[in-house]
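Quick one:
INPUT:
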């Protein structure tokens, strides 16, 4: 009887003691993370999970990943946040199949591995919303589309046959929206719009590989104008340009003297510059050349003999020459 009572008391004590223990740790086994899921947005690869119920503040997590042709490899190690981005750690293939797993750790204790869903990137990634710009031109609106940026590769490389679905409506009348589907060009002109009307536009991307369309773009609105008045804009601009040209010509003619004086000023030299330039040079070399006399010529007396007679010294050569010529003439005459 006493033994039964002791056993009852021991059982009650054990149950009460287990109530006071951390529910995340039972019999030395750490509770595993829950809601483990592998996600992908714009071709990234992120593993997310929820922390175990009642997990201590010091719990950390380790993740691993694998493909259909490889075994598990280490991903994030001893992280405290319930998320691991594999995009920044591994080289991701846009056509790969990935599976990952995670476990919790606290000191020497570890939880069991919890495996995620399988992720086929090109089929399951969530394509982000495109960026849309609008340009109004008369009664038409041009829609310019830019694809979202992928973590690896680009939308056109992954999805060769990606198309755009453009939906537009008058502001406040979305129930009467119209759409253009299977658009391949990233620039589209919407015609047949009413002038002076505000239209709102939204764009989505469709692919044949990914069953889900992209996230819709933000709704952007733009107003049309009157196409018939477009030539008047060019006429007004031409008139303004011509008026400015005529005004410039008139100003140039009226103030031509002032403009000429401004562009070509008639500056006079200071008086001391003039005196310096007009003063005779005072160089020693110049003065010596100016005051010098011509050099004295050196010559020698010459005697000229003609017909065995000597020209008298002191007679000019011209006289001697003339006498010689007369003498020669007389001799010829005598003969």
């Amino acid at each position: 009887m006493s033994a039964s009572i002791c056993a009852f008391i021991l059982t009650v004590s054990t149950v009460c003691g287990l109530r006071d223990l951390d529910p995340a740790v039972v019999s030395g086994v750490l509770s595993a993370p829950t809601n483990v899921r592998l996600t992908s947005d714009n071709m990234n690869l992120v593993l997310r999970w929820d922390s175990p119920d009642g997990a201590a503040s010091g719990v950390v997590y380790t993740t691993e990943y694998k493909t259909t042709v490889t075994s598990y490899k280490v991903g994030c190690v001893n992280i405290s946040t319930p998320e691991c981005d594999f995009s920044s750690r591994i080289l991701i293939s846009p056509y790969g199949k990935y599976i990952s797993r995670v476990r919790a750790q606290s000191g020497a204790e570890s939880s069991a591995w919890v495996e995620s869903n399988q992720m086929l990137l090109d089929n399951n990634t969530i394509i982000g919303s495109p960026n849309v710009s609008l340009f109004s031109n008369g009664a038409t609106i041009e829609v310019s589309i830019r694809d979202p940026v992928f973590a690896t590769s680009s939308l056109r490389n992954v999805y060769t046959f990606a198309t755009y679905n453009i939906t537009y409506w008058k502001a406040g009348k979305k129930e009467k929206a119209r759409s253009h589907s299977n658009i391949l060009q990233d620039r589209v002109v919407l015609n047949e719009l009413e002038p002076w009307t505000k239209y709102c536009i939204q764009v989505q991307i469709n692919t044949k590989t990914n069953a889900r369309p992209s996230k819709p773009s933000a709704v952007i609105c733009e107003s049309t104008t009157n196409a018939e008045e477009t030539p008047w804009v060019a006429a007004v601009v031409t008139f303004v340009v011509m008026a400015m040209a005529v005004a410039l010509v008139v100003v140039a003619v009226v103030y031509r003297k002032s403009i000429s004086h401004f562009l070509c000023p008639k500056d006079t030299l200071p008086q001391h510059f003039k005196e310096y330039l007009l003063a005779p040079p005072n160089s020693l070399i110049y003065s010596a050349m100016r005051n010098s006399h011509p050099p004295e010529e050196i010559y020698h007396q010459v005697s000229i003999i003609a017909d065995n007679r000597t020209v008298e010294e002191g007679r000019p050569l011209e006289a001697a020459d003339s006498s010689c010529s007369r003498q020669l003439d007389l001799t010829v005459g005598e003969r």
